[in-house]
Each structure stands twice: as C-alpha cells, then as structure tokens.
Amino acid sequence: MRLTGLRLTSLRRYPVKGLRGEDHAAMEIDPCGPSGDRRWMAVQPDGVFMSQRRWPGMARIAATLQGDGALVLSCDGASIRVPVPDGAARLRVTVWRSELDAALAGRVADAWLGERLGSACHLVHLDDPTARLVEQIRGVRPDDAVSFADGYPILLTSSASLSALNAALGAPVGMDRFRPNLVIDGAEPWQEDGWQRLRIGAMLFRAPKACTRCIVTTLDQVTGLAPVPGEPLRTLGRLSRHADGIVFGRNLIPEAPGRLRLGDAVEVLGEA
User: Fold this and answer.
1) Which tens digits make up the pLDDT trace of 129-175?
2) How wide is the angle at C-alpha 146 spanned by C-alphas 258 and 201, nearest 5°?
3) Confidence at residue 183, expressed as pLDDT on a 0 to 100 scale
4) Theoretical Cys-Cys bridge with 15: which of 63, 88, 167, 215, CB 3.0 to 4.6 Å?
5) What is the pLDDT of residue 135?
6) Contacts within 8 Å (CB) and 24+ apart, 217-220
7) What is the mean pLDDT of residues 208-220?
8) What is the pTM of this model?
9) Where are the beta strands (DSSP E) in 87-192?
10) What is the rounded CA–CA span in Å between residue 175 and residue 67?
C-alpha cells in the first residue's frame, strides 16, 4: 500500500567526510549521492580514512563548497581555500572495505587540516565518482556507485523517529547527531525501517538497507564532545535494534540523477 502525505523538510550535504555539513534549499542528486557530498576526505598517511570515531575534533571543522568546486575549510576563526586538485599527485585510499585512487589536495591543505586534528594527514579528492561501488546486497545493482560516504549514496531520517527518541532521553539531541542528507516529516516513528522504494519530488529511490549507528551519534556536532557519554546510542538500542545492530534512518540509492527541493512530497511506493 502506498504511503502519502510526507514532506521533505531538510537537505544537507557534507563536502568532506566526517566534517560539518551545509544546508540547502535545493540540491542536485547524482547517481552516487548529492552533488558534492563527501567528495573530499581526510586520510592517515597510509591512506586509511579518518573518522569522528577516533578524531572527534573533526566535528569542529566546517566545510563548504564554492561555485567552482573549491573547498573552504574553517575552524575557530581560521580558514583555507582548497582548489580542486589536477589529479597528477595521487594516493591509494581505504574506506572500510573499499580501496581506490584519489587526488591529493597538496601539502598546504594537509598541514592546515593536520594542525587542527592534531595528527598527520592528507586531504584527498574523489575525482572519479564511479570508482567506488556499493556493497552488493539485495536491492543493489552491480553499477551502483557511492562517494566517500560510509556505505550508500544518501541517508534519509524521519523527524518523528527523532521525536520518539528524544521523548525517551533525559537530554534531547538534534538531528545533526545522525548526519542525514534528507529529513522527512509526516511518518510514524520508526516507520521508515520497512521502506523499500520511494518517490521524492520527481525522483525515484531504492531503499535497500537501514542505517546502523555508531559512537559518532554521542558527539555534539559543533564541539566534538560527548555531553552525555553513551547517549543517545544506549537509548536508541532499546528502541530500534535490528539483526544488523542499532539503526536510525534508511539508506537510499537514486534511480537516476535529478533535483530535490525543500517541501517536496514524499511517497512510499513499497515496504518490506
């Protein structure tokens, strides 16, 4: 049965994996996710990706994209503009089980970022958005691609599920703890867990998997601190635990490129 009456209430992209994101009123969607989303990444000297799981201070660094694709990083009043690299200098990088080549941003950007993270690092750019494929599970096609995101092109969450979680918490948290690309309103709490196919505006999406959650949800996404250690993950584990783990939100794969706008209607076309 189709579910209607839902609306898109937030659009957000994260230019650099693990750093702060930016809100938009409208957003272009590529086959591998929102245009410009997680196309940059901080990696250790050996090429392994860096995450708030180990470097919580990443939450303190803002990242925005300019019209020419250049990246601007800012933290505590200091900023740096990083142009899109030409791709001549490259590094083999690792994101979970994926290995691929990426373009090095250069020593100046590396030094600026490393100083704020307190760790030697490289900043890299994904200049071939088809280079990394999505894990082959049910509902995924052999050519489905993903950026430097953890696993899937887009993450959708529901404001009703956040409200249900906050009602059970002593100290409510914001949706930014879950770092979604899309937020929808009008559903029942946890209803998104069973969605398989959606239409948002004029675009169609598959929803192959719920999103499992980790300790990043315990970090304030402005300070990088954990105000209430273990929360909201501990409470979420009581409310929304599946066979794969603690979940919040649904991973999406776009059927084709398109454009989304705040206020777009959301229609659930298929449920598990």
Assistant:
1) 889 999 888 889 999 999 999 999 999 999 999 999 999 999 999 99
2) 25
3) 98
4) 63
5) 86
6) 217/173, 217/177, 217/178, 217/248, 218/177, 219/52, 219/56, 219/59, 219/177, 220/59, 220/177
7) 97
8) 0.96
9) 90-95, 98-104, 122-125, 154-158, 182-185
10) 27
Cα(105)–Cα(189) distance, integer angstroms? 42
Measured CA angle at 269 (ends 163, 23), to 5 deg: 45
Q: What angle do CA 117, 155, 185 make, to 5 degrees?
A: 120
Can you tell me the mean pLDDT for 223-243? 96
Task: Give the pair of three-digit tokens for residue 85.
Answer: 């690299």
Residue pLDDT, tens place only, 12-34: 999 999 999 999 999 999 999 99
Over residues 76-93, the pLDDT tens digits come to 999 999 999 999 999 999
Of the CA atoms within 13 Å of residue 253, those in its CB half-sphere come to 23
Residue 120: what are its φ and ψ, rounded to 5°?
Answer: -60, 140
Can you say whether residue 22 is alpha, beta or left, with left for phi > 0 and alpha for psi between -120 and 50 degrees? beta
- Token pair, residue 169, equals 């918490």
**pLDDT, mean over the chain:** 96
Q: Quickly list H helices, the chain.
A: 107-117, 159-168, 233-239
Sheet containing 40-43: which strands, arranged edge to edge? 40-43, 122-125, 98-104, 90-95
Q: How far apart are CA 201 and CA 73, in angstroms?
A: 32
Amino acid at 25: A
Confidence of residue 272 (pLDDT cuts 50, 70, 90): low
Task: Look at residue 215 and give its three-state secondary structure.
Answer: helix
Q: Specify which residues 241 forms β-bridges with.
A: 246
Pairwise CA distance, residues 86 & 138, whole Å = 37
